[in-house]
Write a structure and sequence with these properties.
By secondary structure, the protein is mainly beta. The chain is about 10% helix and about 35% strand. A hairpin with a 4-residue loop joins strand 1 and strand 2. It is globular, with a radius of gyration of 16 Å.
Amino acid sequence: MSDKIKITDLYDLNETIASEYLKQFTYPWEALKGISDFIKELGNKLPSDRFEKRGEDIWVAKSAKVAPTACLNGPLIIDEDAEVRHCAFVRGSAIVGKNCVVGNSTELKNVILFNNVQVPHYNYVGDSILGFRSHMGAGSITSNVKSDKKLVVVKGEEKYETGLKKFGAMLGDNVEVGCNSVLNPGTILGRGVSVYPTSCVRGVIPEEHIFKKNGDICPRV
C-alpha cells in the first residue's frame, strides 16, 4: 500500500482560506516556500467589511479575538472567530483559520492552520500545516530543523526528498497530539491519528492509527 501523504489524502480543502493555493501542489511540503507571498496576495483581496488591516501585511477578521499582549508579525491572516491569546507570538508567514485557538506562549512561523485547529498551550509550530480540527496538547512542538542541518527526507514506505532544510510536520484532519510530544522534521500524521503524550514521532503514521511510546503503532479499534 502506498503512502497516503498527498494534500488530497490529508486535508479537506473546504476548511481553509488557502484552498486555491494548496490545490496547486501534490505534496503539502511543496506549499511551504510560498506561504508568505500567498498571504500578501490574498490579504489585499479580503473584504473590508469582514477584515481589517492592522499593520504591514497583517489582516485580522473583525470577529476574531486577539489579546493586546499577543505579538503579531506579517505576513499574517487571522480568519473569522479565531482566538489569539495572551502572549502568543506570531513570527510571520502564518494563516490562522476560522475558529482556531492560538494560546498562551504559543509560537507560529511559516504555517497554515486549517479551520478549528487548536494550539492552545505552550506550542511551537514552524514550517508546518495543521489540518481541520487538529489539536496539539500542551507543550507539544514541531521540530523543524534536523540536528545535523541536512535536508529533510520524509520516510514512509518510500523516501521523499523534500529539498527543504526547514520542515516541521504535516498533520491531517482530526489529528490529536498528546502533551509534551515532539514531532521530528518531516513527520506526516494521517487523518485521525492520535499520538500518546510525551512521544517522539518521526516518519509517516498512517491515517486512523495510534502512535504509542517507543514507536508502537496500532490501528484504531
